[in-house]
Amino acid sequence: MTTPSIQWYPGHIAKAERDLKEQLKRVDVVLEVRDARIPLSTHHPQTSQWVGNKTRVLVLNRVDMITPAARQLWVSWFRDQGETPYFTNAQQGKGIREVTQAAQAAGVALNQRRSDRGMQPRPVRAVAMGFPNVGKSALINRLLGRRVVESARRAGVTRQLRWVRISDEIELLDAPGVIPAKLSNQQKALKLAICDDIGEASYDNQRVAVALVELLKDLEDTAEYGLLPPSPLKTRYELDPASFTAEDYLHALADYRHQGDVERTARQLLNEFRKGVLGAICLELPPT
Ligand SMILES: Nc1nc2c(ncn2[C@@H]2O[C@H](COP(=O)(O)OP(=O)(O)OP(=O)(O)O)[C@@H](O)[C@H]2O)c(=O)[nH]1
Ligand SMILES: [Mg+2]
């Protein structure tokens, strides 16, 4: 039996993408928000087309969910690509000021050009763009210092585009998450599912949990010291994955902890990874 591939492109996202394209004409700065646990898989291939000649600010959110060593690896890699990543924790409001400053700097340049042409200054207009559930709305609430837009633990919370005035200098557009219409790379799709960045109706929990175990096994075998907590699965569940295939591990864990209930075990594994119970774990390392 072949498992169907993971695809998720609900109607509201298709609509969001159309609305977003329309609004982009008014935008000066694109805050490209990615999930720090999977910085490559949460890069939308059309981003550069949308950014055009606007300023792009690269935000890697959920920095609290990766280790400092992983962050450092990504900083070096992005710098080698000529990019400056801004790491944020939008839940607790860390790294926010630097993002505001980057957006404001673009505003200063904008208003210089306007004043050269005899035009009145105006606030710089930025959009928070990114995959579903990466923390765009949480980031906007933090930029503003109070809760104005809805942010919750589900993909697809923001349904409408909404402009918010952050200050006299900045206006920000909260946009619904966008995602490629076709997820052609299933390895990436699995990571999106693991990180809760796509709707749960689109995948099978057990298959995604097996993919998580596989990734953790690989990371344990190959990652350098400090990139993830030592033996996260063994530490949490008292069952070492080393002597199992990922699929056998899920079943063994189900037998050991949940009377053979594999679905329940899969859900628990995913849920605990997403809540950070397994520790701070970056699932993607820079390509070498
Ligand atoms: N641990 C952690 N959680 C975060 C962070 N940023 C956001 N969250 C949580 O992630 C969940 C999703 O955040 P949202 O702000 O709704 O994400 P969004 O990108 O606006 O999602 P959509 O509108 O569905 O596209 C919420 O439960 C937030 O509290 C972060 O930096 N760290
Ligand atoms: Mg949102």
Question: Can you walk me through this structure?
Answer:
The chain is an alpha/beta fold and about 290 residues long. Helix content is about 40%, strand content about 10%. It has helices spanning about 10-25, 45-50, 70-80, 95-115, 135-145, 185-195, 205-220, 230-235, 245-255, 260-275; strands at about 30-35, 55-60, 85-90, 125-130, 160-165, 170-175. The protein has a 6-stranded mixed sheet. Bound molecules: guanosine-5'-triphosphate and magnesium ion. Guanosine-5'-triphosphate binds near residues 64, 155, 157 and 177.
Which features characterize this protein?
288 residues; alpha/beta; Rossmann fold; binds guanosine-5'-triphosphate; binds magnesium ion
Residues in helix, % = 40-55%
Please give the CATH architecture of the largest domain: 3-Layer(aba) Sandwich
Total DSSP helices: 10
Alpha-beta classification: alpha/beta
Mean pLDDT: 93
Shape assignment? elongated
Proportion of strand residues: 5-15%
What binds here, in terms of ligands, is:
guanosine-5'-triphosphate, magnesium ion
CATH superfamily of the largest domain: P-loop containing nucleotide triphosphate hydrolases
The CATH topology assignment of the largest domain is Rossmann fold
Question: Total strand count, please?
Answer: 6
> What string, H for helix and E for strand, traces the elements in order?
HEHEHEHEHEEHHHHH
- Overall CATH class of the largest domain: Alpha Beta
Order of strands across the main sheet: 3-2-1-4-6-5
The biggest beta sheet reads: 6 strands, mixed
Counted up, domains total 2
